[in-house]
Write a structure and sequence with these properties.
Elements (H helix, E strand, L loop, with lengths): L11 H12 L11 H4 L17 H13 L7 E4 L4 H7 L18 E4 H9 L4 H21 L3 E9 L13 H13 L3 E9 L5 H5 L5 E4 L7 H13 L3 E4 H9 L1 H8 L8 H14 L20 H4 L4
Parallel strand pairs: 1-2, 3-4, 3-5, 5-6
Protein name: Small gtp-binding protein
Pfam families: HydF_tetramer
Organism: Nannochloropsis gaditana
Length: 310
């Protein structure tokens, strides 16, 4: 939840997913993480008079991991895309030397609401959005090897018309996604346009004015319109990816790879190689929670979720 979310209400993807699970007799637990505490990293040399477990960071982490310890095997954690950096890092096995948290011994399956929604709204075509990430990676590699500036023309398409308050909180479409693009693909320059609500630049897509469309989960339009947009992009030769995929990849490439595993999506080789290269450069996966927004700021058997293909 951020500053643009009405108080005491669930976002539509949160409500839809929980309703789907309950209709299939799958129990759910709703948990609201305090991201301010989760990103208030403890000092490297804490004062001897203050226990590390008393810091807001350790307090929030302990609360989250205690909840995870109650979940049965085969459970899935679905997070808001804006918190994927923290959730990815905290659902890995205990870090070396970290004896404070021993309850979480095995990786937990994770994904994001945006990824679940685009899988559902596209009729099970999440793989096409994963393929869309390869276009950005290919352009990044071309720019890196050429050692010269290369511009990517990106359309960020958000199907809702919510009030945007960038001065109060990092709006996901206008602030966080542009930052994520530049963080994940530092060798590229970006020319970014936005489309909101039912507006969609059909002619611009046909004219080849964009390289990539980054689309939201599509919860505020119908499935037919989502698929029509996908087909229009394909006809114009424009790659299509998703908010959740991009934010996960920007936090840590392995976070995105983990987030699509519950759906059995095949990962293109170029994405796997790029993810490995990035993480070898700086062990990004274990430091993912330090790259988050300032806002507030083998595969398990999950057949019930895969039912959302249709």
């Amino acid at each position: 939840m951020d500053a643009e979310t009405p108080l005491t209400r669930l976002l539509r993807p949160q409500a839809l997913l929980q309703a789907f699970c309950l209709h299939h007799y799958i129990p759910t637990i709703a948990y609201r993480m305090n991201l301010s505490k989760a990103r208030s990293f403890p000092p490297s040399s804490p004062s001897p008079s203050v226990s590390s477990m008393q810091s807001p960071y350790e307090e929030e982490k302990a609360k989250f991991l205690s909840l995870l310890s109650l979940l049965p095997p085969g459970s899935l954690v679905v997070t808001d895309s804006q918190a994927i950096d923290v959730v990815h890092a905290w659902t890995l096995p205990p870090l070396g030397g970290d004896e404070s948290f021993t309850k979480l011994q095995k990786p937990v399956d994770i994904t994001t609401f945006s990824i679940v929604m685009i899988q559902h709204m596209s009729g099970g075509r999440l793989g096409a959005f994963v393929e869309g990430m390869t276009r950005l990676v290919e352009m990044e590699e071309e720019a890196r090897q050429a050692k010269e500036g290369k511009e990517a023309r990106v359309l960020i398409a958000e199907a809702c018309n919510h009030v945007r308050i960038p001065e109060a909180c990092d709006d996901i479409g206008t602030v966080q996604l542009p930052q994520a693009l530049r963080r994940a693909f530092p060798h590229l320059g970006f020319h970014i346009h936005h489309a909101y609500g039912r507006e969609f630049p059909w002619q611009a897509l046909q004219d080849g004015r964009y390289d990539v469309v980054v689309h939201c989960g599509g919860c505020m339009i119908d499935r037919q319109k989502v698929r029509a947009r996908m087909e229009e992009c394909a006809d114009g030769g424009v790659a299509t990816t998703n908010y959740g995929l991009l934010l996960a990849y920007a936090a840590a490439p392995q976070a995105m790879l983990r987030a699509v595993r519950p759906f059995g999506v095949e990962i293109p080789e170029i994405l796997s190689k790029h993810a490995t290269m990035v993480e070898q450069d700086g062990d990004v996966g274990r430091r993912a929670s330090k790259s988050g927004s300032s806002c507030l700021n083998p595969v398990s058997a999950l057949s019930p979720l895969t039912d959302m293909k249709e």
